[in-house]
Amino acid sequence: MMFKKYLDNEQFNFQLNRFLGKFMEDSEVKNDIEKALLNIKDMNSWYIAWRKLAEKSEIKGKFELASAYYAAGSFYLRESDPNKAYMYTKYRENYYKSYKGVPLEHFNVPYEDSFFPAVRVKFQGSTKTLIFHGGYDSCLEEMLPFFSAFENLGYDIIAFEGPGQGMALKNGLKFIHNWERPVSALLDYFNLNEVTILGCSWGGYFCLRAAAFEKRIKAAIVYDIFYCGMDVIGMKNKEMRYELEKLLNNNEKDKINELMYSKMKADIDFNWKISKGMDNTMTYTPYDFLKAIQLHTMDGIEELIDQDVLLLAGEEDQYVPIEAMKLFEDRLVNANITKKIFTKETGGEQHCQVGRIDLAFDEIKKFLVRK
């Protein structure tokens, strides 16, 4: 299954491949999706199109497909929109109705004055543990299909939603930069002394950040590379990024908000990045969000990472500049690095290898077997 282009908006394409790609081989589903695409022009028409198909699929008892449509439809909705809660609930409800994977144990891990959800899978004969988490907009259920790929490798798997993600966000836990805190809480809760950690997307930063300060982590899988939050914000416009950083350093709140709101009006993808970020960090202006995101950086902590590290990257990643690979290679001076860059020729050139995640999993499995 290769990455396919459906519309001119590259983020629409990415989310279509992410949520619905696996269903495109069914001609009836493909036909439904192609018809829906004719009406998609903006965030609202995106939501309406997928909600209609989600409800239609649910009535027909196609729960896995309905779940994927609900997930796609909720993508651009704000946390304050009542439809967001409805779509999220329906997504999970349909997901578990259709779930046929490995047996799951569900846990609520106490954290601060709340908790975050975790799921554990124990495989027969396993002696090691792989910790699994997402990034900016991930939720637990999106990770569960990956589990069976790691069977018979000698690892039990624990996946969790940390602060700012999925149910943890709804429990009042906001997105934070110091990811070692929830990871340490998780390791304490399960009484684990040695683990490998895998972080997806923005989780590529999180897992390395955790490894810098939590030495029960013996290896880190960075799926994909992620050096700092400001890379994502300034990905398409380097000049704007420098301008922003200058304004942030001078605390120019009004100028930043004005600049951000005008960019958000003109660009759906950028609007989502900032809106989702404000929801995640529980901030109310782009300025306050950017101040929070500036803390999400590897700069200055690279030397603390002394574990085995697998760095994965897609050459045409729309969220993370491929140049970050060189930074990691130069600055992770105490780590034992394995790296893989995926290209258009090999497949897997997109963010987190969407369209060919099997290629990423092959590299991850090779790395895990060597541990």
Strand % is: 5-15%
Query: How helical, in percent, are the residues?
Result: 40-55%
Biggest sheet, in brief?
8 strands, mixed
**Which strand order do you get reading across the main beta sheet?**
1-2-4-3-5-6-7-8
Helix and strand content put the structural class at: alpha/beta
Low-confidence stretches: none
Number of strands: 8
The CATH class of the largest domain turns out to be Alpha Beta
CATH topology of the largest domain: Rossmann fold
Total domain modules? 3
Could you say what the CATH architecture of the largest domain is? 3-Layer(aba) Sandwich
Number of helices: 16
CA(first)-CA(last) distance: 30 Å
- Evaluate the radius of gyration: 20 Å
**SSE string, helix = H, strand = E?**
HHHHHEEEHEHHEHEHHHHHEHEH
Name given to the CATH homologous superfamily of the largest domain: Alpha/Beta hydrolase fold, catalytic domain
Describe this structure in words.
The chain is an alpha/beta fold and 371 residues long. It folds into 3 domains: 89 residues; 199 residues, Alpha/Beta hydrolase fold, catalytic domain (Rossmann fold, 3-Layer(aba) Sandwich); 64 residues, no CATH class. It is 47% helix and 15% strand. An 8-stranded mixed sheet has the order 1-2-4-3-5-6-7-8, sandwiched between helices. Helix 1 packs antiparallel against helix 4 and helix 13 crosses helix 14. The two termini are 30 Å apart. This is Alpha/beta superfamily hydrolase. InterPro entries: AB_hydrolase_1, AB_hydrolase_fold. GO terms for molecular function: hydrolase activity. Keywords: Hydrolase.
